[in-house]
Design brief:
Layout (H helix, E strand, L loop, with lengths): L8 H8 L5 E2 L2 H10 L3 E6 L11 H12 L3 E6 L21 H18 L10 E4 L1 H4 L4 H7 L6 H6 L1 H7 L7 H4 L1 H16 L3 E5 L3 H15 L4 E5 L27 H9 L6 H8 L4 H8 L5 H18 L1 H16 L9 E4 L1 H6 L1 E2 H8 L5 H9 L3 E3 L2 E2 L6 E2 L9 E5 L3 E7 L1
Parallel strand pairs: 2-3, 2-5, 3-4, 5-6, 7-13
Antiparallel strand pairs: 1-6, 8-11, 9-10, 9-12, 12-13
Helix pairs in contact: 10-11, 12-15, 12-16, 13-14, 13-15, 15-16, 18-19
Length: 418
């Protein structure tokens, strides 16, 4: 991770929060931020119909830019999505249809609106779609205008490309063009919007440097690149992933309570770091909270969960999720705010073995995993430990018309027969 000493307020705070992994021309970039508002962009390819927690660091950096008076640009990659980013993937993505790309782009746009202010006022964020210019390109014009500036030897040296070539799957010519199109995006945004900085994950370093070089060669301008660190938990897990799948930011994809609970489940060693990265709280306060020990660290986790959820879903929804947690875990009440799953009534009329209940809720992925959970004492129905994996669960087991299903101490859903 980079350890440059910055003078500009934005880069100083970005560094203090742990956002900066690597940058090009660090001193010149720092000077650019000192001299006036900087326009920077991050691309979000619509590979799904919602962003997830894995995108949160990029979103927080754009938020920080906005707070410091700079202009963040969120680029929805509905053009580049037609190819698919091969960076550090073991095999090629399946090509999406135009309808899927359009649907996913709409979900990505709504996700971005939850984190950034697009009101058109000073320092307003700007949302653009790269299909607007990429779909107009002709192949020969792209080769003559852009391709001539790319060295195949250098492209082959990118870690993301080299690792794919070392595998049996190889790299298709279609995917090989992705870096060229991403570089074209940078130049298009520089020309149209005065963008001088591209930000991305550390896996995008090669693509970003290629864009910086394209603008220098064709426009005679100095522009910059900045990458963010790959976030893993203290135990080594990739940020945003869990046994239940991606932690989506749209409420229809993931209930607000589950989003809150994801942050509440942060490992003790990560609390201070995640407070700095994923909330707007002052850095000094994040460090104070992260240094708490014993039972007090749980209070810090609740603050992390509420603040991170407020950024994504609004303060009211975050406070409701926090109150739901108190009612559910500390006061033992059945809360209607817990995620609810509909189950066909006839299934409970006939009766289901207990392990099947956990599979139906999605708390586990398989019957084998459910059986192991039960044998380990981590499965509960209406707060009663399940001791027999084959015990029959019927409508008679409902409480207040529902069945609360718990995996461990922190994962809960409600089954409602329909």
């Amino acid at each position: 991770m980079e350890h440059t000493t910055y003078k500009s307020p934005f880069l100083q705070e970005a560094q203090a929060r742990g956002y900066i992994y690597q940058s090009t021309h660090s001193e010149a970039l720092d000077q650019a931020f000192l001299e006036g508002p900087v326009s920077a962009y991050i691309g979000f390819d619509p590979t799904a119909d919602s962003l997830h927690v894995g995108h949160a660091l990029c979103l927080m950096v754009l938020r920080l830019m906005q707070r410091h008076g700079h202009r963040p640009i969120a680029l929805v990659g509905d053009g580049t999505a037609q190819i698919g980013d091969p960076s550090f993937r073991e095999e090629a993505r399946s090509l999406m249809t135009a309808e899927t790309i359009a649907q996913n782009s709409e979900g990505v746009a709504r996700s971005l609106q939850q984190f950034l202010n697009f009101d058109g006022a000073e320092s307003s964020a700007l949302m653009l779609h790269n299909a607007a210019w990429l779909n107009r390109l002709t192949y020969l014009d792209l080769l003559r205008d852009v391709g001539v500036h790319f060295s195949v030897n250098r492209m082959l040296s990118f870690d993301s490309v080299r690792q794919r070539l070392e595998r049996e799957q190889g790299l298709t010519f279609l995917e090989f063009n992705y870096s060229i199109l991403q570089s074209y995006d940078f130049r298009a945004l520089n020309r149209a919007e005065g963008v001088t900085l591209q930000i991305g994950g550390s896996d995008q370093w090669g693509n970003i440097v290629a864009g910086v070089e394209l603008v220098r060669r064709t426009e005679g301008k100095q522009v910059f690149g900045l990458t963010l660190p790959l976030i893993t938990t203290a135990s080594g897990a990739k940020m945003g992933k869990s046994a239940q799948g991606a932690r989506w930011v749209l409420a229809e994809k993931l209930p607000v309570f589950e989003y809150w609970q994801f942050w509440r489940n942060t490992e003790d060693a990560d609390v201070g770091r995640f407070l700095k990265m994923f909330t707007d709280l002052p850095v000094t306060e994040c460090e104070r909270l992260g240094a708490l020990e014993g039972a007090e660290i749980n209070d810090a986790k609740k603050i992390l969960a509420t603040e991170a959820t407020a950024i994504c879903h609004g303060r009211a929804a975050a406070e409701e999720a926090a109150q739901t947690a108190i009612a559910t875990f500390e006061q033992g009440r059945l809360s209607t705010s817990l995620p609810t799953i509909a189950l066909a009534r006839h299934m409970l009329e006939e009766g289901l073995p207990a392990y099947r209940i956990f599979v139906e809720t999605g708390l586990v992925k398989s019957g084998g995993e459910a059986r192991r959970l039960i044998r380990g004492g981590g499965a509960r129905l209406n707060d009663v430990v399940v001791s027999d994996e084959n015990q029959t669960v019927t409508l008679n087991d409902l409480s207040e018309g529902v069945l609360r299903v718990s995996s461990g101490k922190k994962n809960h859903v409600i089954i409602k027969p329909e």
